[in-house]
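Note to self: the last two entries modelled the partners one at a time, which told us nothing about the interface. This time every component goes in together.
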Amino acid sequence: MSKLGNLGARLHRGEVGYDFVRNRKIWYGISILITITAILGLTVRGLNMGIEFQGGAVFTTPKTSVSVAQAETYAQDSSGHEAVVQKLGTGGLRIQVAGIDTSKADHIKAELAKDLKVDAEKINADLVGPSWGEQIANKAWQGLAIFMVLVVIYLAIAFEWRMAIAALVALIHDITITVGVYALVGFEVTNGTVIGLLTILGYSLYDTVVVFDSLKESTKDITKQTRWTYGEIANRSINATLIRSINTTAVALMPVAGLLFIGGGVLGAGTLNDISLSLFVGLAAGAYSSIFIATPIVADLKEREPQMKALKKRVLAKRAQATVEEELVEAGTAGGPLDDEPEDVAPAVVGQRNQPAARNRGRGRPSGKRR
Amino acid sequence: MSWPPTRPHGAGRPEREYEKVAAPKKGQSASAQGKPGRSLALILIAIVALTGGMFASGHTTPRLGIDLAGGTSITLKAKSGQESAINKTNLDTAVDIMERRVNGLGVSEAEVQTQGDRNIIVNIPKGTNSQQAREQVGTTAKLYFRPVLATEPVGAPAPASPTPSPSGSPAKKATSTASPSSSATSSSSATASAGATSQGRALTDALKADATTSPSASASPSTKASASASPSASGSDSAAKLQQEYAKLNCADPAVRAHAGVGAKPNEPTLACGQNGQKQWQKYVLGPAELAGTDVKKAQAVFDTQGAGGWKVTMDFTSAGTKKFADITGKLAQQQSPQNQFAIVLDGEVVSDPYVRQALTGGNAEISGSFDQTEAKNLANVLSYGALPLSFEEQSVTTVTAALGGEQLNAGLIAGAIGLALVILYLVVYYRGLSLIAITSLLVSAALTYVIMSLLGPTIGFALNLPAVCGAIVAIGITADSFIVFFERIRDEIREGRSLRPSVERAWPRARRTILVSDFVSFLAAAVLFVVTVGKVQGFAFTLGLTTVFDVVVVFLFTKPLMTILARRKFFADGHSWSGLDPKRLGAKPPLRRTRRPSAPVDPKEA
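The predicted structure of the combined assembly is written out below.
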C-alpha cells in the first residue's frame, strides 16, 4: 500500500504521470480501430438476439438425468421448431425454442414434462410474444435518446459545452464497444443485456464527470498564468484523479464480477448473468474512455479557442526563452557548477515577456562574478 | 463553483452548508466542525424510526417479485382498432376488471398494474393455478344481463364488513323497494323455489328510466341463444337438477363460489353468487342471458345533483342492445319481485341486480340505489368493460417455480455478499483506518435501503425482483465511490502538508461538489429509465435511483460528520500508520519546504 500511496502522492504532485493528452492521437487511433471493428462485427456478424426479441419460449427444468442432445430432440419433436438446450450449473436444463406462439407453449411444456419425466409445475417457463423484445428495445432507445439530450444540457450548464460533447462522445464510444463485443463474441442479447447497457449510461458518465470536475477546478484561472497550456493542465487533472479512477473502477467492477461469477458459474444463465456481463464490458470501456478519450477531446476542443491559443503561444514563447536562457547560462558557466534550478526562474517571470532579457543579464552577471 | 447542482431529493442542508463554507471561519465552526453530532443523531434517529415503522407495519422483509418468490407474471399489450382508444382511462378500467377476475379465482394477492402507456402486468403468486389465471386474463370478460328467477341470501354477512346501510339516503330507497319484495315473498309461486326468496334483500337497486312502456312481447330470447338447440326449454329434469344445486349452493364458501355457474352457457339458466348491498352473499337462479356486455356502448358513474339520488350509474346501449334491452325490461316490468330483477353477471358472479320498473326503450338506462362513489365507479367499470375497444395480446408469460425463485434470490444475495466483501477488502487494504468510516457508511446505506424497500412494499407496491437486486449490488460501487472521492481529496490536502482537521474541512466542499454532480448524472439516468422503459428495466432503474439518493444522504449526514469527529481522534489526527492518513506514507511534503511549489508538473515527459 505504501508504494501505492507514494504513487498517489507522486501523481498528485505530478512527479510521475503519463501524458494522456500528448499521446492522444495514439489512443484516438486505438479507439477508432476498436470502434470500426465493433461496427464491422455488428454489420457482418450481427447480434445474437435472444428469445425475447424473436418470440418463443425458454423452459428451465429442475435437475434431470436426460442428456442435452436427447432433450433437444424431445423439444424439437414437441414444438416442431429448432430448440437450443444448455446444461445449467444446477444440473437442470435450459431449453430455448424460438418462433413459437405463446398459446402453444403450454402444450409444449406439458409434452416436455412427460418426456423429461419431471413435474410440469416444476418447469419454469418464459414465454415471449414476438413484439415484446421490440417494444423493450424501442423503449430503451427512446430512454437512451432522452437521457443523452438531458445529460448534454446538464453538463453544458454545469461545466461547458465542450465537456458535454466530449462526455457524449465517450458515452457513444462505450456503448459501441459493448455492443461490438456482443456482436463479435456472440453473446446472446436479452432483456438483461439491455438493462446492463442502459446502466453503463450512468456509470460511464459518472466516471467522466469526476475527471471533468477536477479539470474544471484546476483550469479556473488558467489565463492568469503562463506556465502551462490547457492540455498540460488537463493531463495533470487526469493524473491527479488517476488513483481515484482506478479505485472507483476496481470497486465498481468487484460487485459486478461477483454477479458475473454467481450468475454465470452457479446459475448457468439468466438475468443476473446477462446484466452483469454487459455491465462488466461497459464499465471497463467506460473507465478507459473517461481517461483516454473524454479529457483529451476536451483539451483538443479547448485549445482551439482563441484565448487558449494565445495562452499556448505565450507559454511556448516563455519556454523557448527559458531554454535560450538556460543555454546562455550554461554557455556562461561552462565548466562551472550549475547554479540554482532553472525552474525557479519560471515563476518569477510569469506574465512579463519583456523582462527576461534584463533578468538574463542580471543573472549572467553573478555567475560571471563567481567565475 | 458556479453551479451548485440541483439536489432532487429534499433537505435544504447542503445549500446552507455551502453558504457557510463560503465564509470559511463561520463555516468551520458552525456546520462543519461544530455540529457533526447533530447530523449523526439525525440520521440515526431516522434509521431507528424507519426500522421501528418497519416492525410496526409487520413487513420486515421487502416484498419479493415473481422471479424471486415464484409465480406467474403475464405481460399484456393493449391492441385496438383506433389508437386513441389506448388511453389511461381505458387501461385503468381494464386493470380493474382483470383484478376482479383474477382475484375472483380465489387467488389472493394477485396484482394487476398498468405499465408504460399500453401494457398491463398481471402477477400471480405461486400456489395458484396459473393456467386458469392466464385464461382469465387472456380471454375477454363475459358480461351478461340475465333475468333473476330466484334469489336468497346465504349465511352470515361476510367477515370484517359490519357495513350497515352506508348513509341515510339508501335507507329511504330501501323502504320504497322493500314493499314489493316483501309482497313478493308470499306470491312468488312462479319458480316454486323456497319461500325464502329475497327476504333480507332490502337494498335492491332501483332501475328506472324515461321511456314508456312498449312491452310487445316480441319474444326472440337473445338472438345468440336461438342458434343452438332449444334454449330455455327448461326440461323438467334439468330444471330440477338446477333446483337441487341451488338448494345446496353455499355462496359463503369461497371455493364453492368460484365454481358456481362456471361453464354456464349464455343460453341456459344458471346459478350464481353475488354480494348484496350489505356485503351479504346471495345466491341466484338466473335465466338465459338476454344481453351481452358488448351490447353496452358506454357506462359511467355520475352524481345525481337533482334529487337526493346520490351516486348512480348510467348506461348507453348500442342499437342492437337498445332493442334487446327494451324487450327484456318490457317483460321484467310485468313480473313480481324478484322476477322483475335482472342480474348483471360478470364471469359468473352477480355484480348488481337492479329491478325494473318499466320497459326501457330509449337506449339508455340508469341504475340508482345506495351507491357510494367507489361502488358506482366499480359497477360502471364492469359495465363498460364489454364495450372497451381494447383487446389484449400476451407479450410475455413467465412462470417461475418457487424453487428457482429461491435459488435466484440466494444467488443474488451471495453475489451481493461477494461483491460487498471484495469492496470492503479492497477498502481495508487501501485505506486502512479510513475504511472503517467507509464500511460503517456502507452499512448505514445498506440498512437504509433495506428498511425503505421493506416499507415501500406495502405502500407503493414495490416488489424486489432480480434486476432490482442487481441494481442494488451495482450501487455498492457508486456508494463506495463517494467515499473514495472524499478520501482522496483529504489525502491530497494532507500531501499539501496540512494537518488532518483542516484537510477534512478543505476537502469536503470540493468532494461534495464532485459527489453531487456525479450522483446527479447517475440519478438522471435512473430517472429517465424509470419513466421511459417497461418491464424489468424499471425495477432496476428504481433501485438504482433509490440507492443513489441514499448515497447522497449518507455521505452528507453520516460520512462527513463521522469523518469530522474521527479527525479529532489521536489515531487519525496523528496519522498513525494504520489510519490510512499517515503523512509519511502519503508522501506529504515536509512543512518546511512548503514554500516551494511543485516543479515537476510542467514536465510533460514520463517519469
